[in-house]
Each structure stands twice: as C-alpha cells, then as structure tokens.
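User: Hi! I have a protein structure encoded as tokens and I'd like to know what sequence might fold into it. I'm fairly new to this, so please keep things simple.
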C-alpha cells in the first residue's frame, strides 16, 4: 500500500478531523440494534410474507459518520422459511433483498435504495439523517410465503450491515442489476481485494463495524 494512502487514512481518522470531533447536533440516542419478525394473520399466511423491521442499525454515531464521509451503508436481508416436522428441520425457501443508504455531500441529501431480484425497486431522496433512519426502520413485507399443507413452519431472518467505499457501491449496484458477476462463484460481494482492504482500514479507523443480526419467528401451522 502506498504511504500516501496510509497517511490519508490516518489524517481522516485523527482528532483534528472536524466532523468527527465533538458532539453532533440532532444525533439520535444510541440504542441496541434489533430485528423484528411479525407473522401475517393466520388466514393470510400463504398469501403474505412476514413483516420485517430493522431498528437502530444505522442510527449510531460511527455509522452516521461513515455514511457522511462517503462510505454508504448496505443492509442485506435474507429470510428463510423452515419446516420443523420430522427428525430434522428443512428449508422450504428463501428470499433476499438489499437496502443502500448513501449521502450526497453536494446536495446535502441522503439516498435510500432498495433492490430485489437484481432490480431497483425504489429509491428516495431524504433531507435529514433522521428521515433516512425512519425510512430504513419502516416495516417491509418479505417476498416469501408459507407453504400450504406443510408441517409446522417458521421464518429465520438474518441481516448484515456493512459500510462500503464509493467504488464498492458502484460495483454492487451493477451486480444487483445483473450487469456484473463476482470473479469467484460464491464470493460474498463484488469489489477488488485492494478496495475491500482500504474500506476495512477506513472503517476500523473511524470506529465502524460490520453487524450481523438474526431473529426467528414463532412456529405456526397453516390452517385448512
């Protein structure tokens, strides 16, 4: 790694970096991250998926600082439907979707994008960080439904939150649109090794971390 890159990272993380030093007005109180999974009404289990809410996953100061310094936050959701009948549990299906929260320093606006099945479902321009947090924490209906005439079932939902560099974000958007494939099958996400290394260096210096949450729904049966 070039010395200039390391020096830039250290300068950015130093105590003289203005936006990172001292309290920030309007910062939301720090609370523990939480993942909520709510089942639909019993008569709608085969027509609707569970409702998912991610609370307090980007509202802390380190994550906000990362976003405002050009490191967007990616929220990767995965919902699995499991059957608990017989000797072993078995997975009946799964669904994934992504949210990306970024900041436009020129317009002084936040941006929230949601992707599902390699396509952009929605995007919003938000004026304040609090509005971005509220949009992230809005309940989302998972695109997966219970199976009729199956054994007891339950949903297992996982969420990974991580910060990315601008280059990683560009490659991720292209990948989610189906324009780019990882070089190695099964790789976690696109991006060069150097880009991921620099991203991790900056993330460590600024105090951000990758978060993994998991929550299981109540066990249910589908009524005839």
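Assistant: Happy to help. Inverse folding works backwards from shape to sequence: for each of the 224 positions I chose a residue that suits the local structure. Here it is:
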């Amino acid at each position: 790694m070039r010395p200039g890159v390391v020096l830039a990272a250290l300068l950015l993380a130093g105590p003289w970096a203005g936006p990172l030093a001292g309290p920030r007005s309007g910062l939301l109180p720090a609370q523990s991250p939480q993942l909520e999974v709510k089942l639909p009404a019993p008569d709608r289990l085969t027509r609707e998926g569970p409702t998912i809410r991610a609370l307090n996953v980007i509202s802390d100061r380190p994550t906000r600082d990362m976003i405002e310094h050009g490191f967007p936050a990616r929220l990767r959701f995965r919902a699995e439907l499991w059957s608990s009948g017989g000797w072993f549990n078995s997975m009946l299906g799964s669904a994934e979707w992504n949210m990306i929260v970024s900041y436009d320093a020129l317009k002084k606006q936040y941006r929230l994008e949601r992707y599902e099945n390699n396509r952009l479902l929605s995007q919003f321009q938000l004026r304040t960080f609090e509005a971005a947090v509220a949009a992230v924490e809005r309940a989302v209906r998972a695109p997966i439904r219970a199976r009729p005439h199956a054994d007891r079932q339950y949903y297992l939902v996982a969420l990974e939150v991580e910060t990315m560099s601008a280059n990683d974000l560009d490659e991720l958007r292209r990948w989610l649109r189906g324009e780019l494939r990882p070089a190695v099958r099964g790789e976690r996400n696109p991006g060069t090794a150097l880009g991921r290394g620099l991203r991790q260096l900056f993330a460590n210096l600024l105090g951000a971390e990758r978060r993994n949450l998991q929550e299981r729904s109540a066990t249910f049966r589908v009524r005839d």
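A useful reference point when you look it over: The helical segments are 3-13, 61-68, 129-136, 166-176, 193-206. Feel free to ask if any position seems puzzling.
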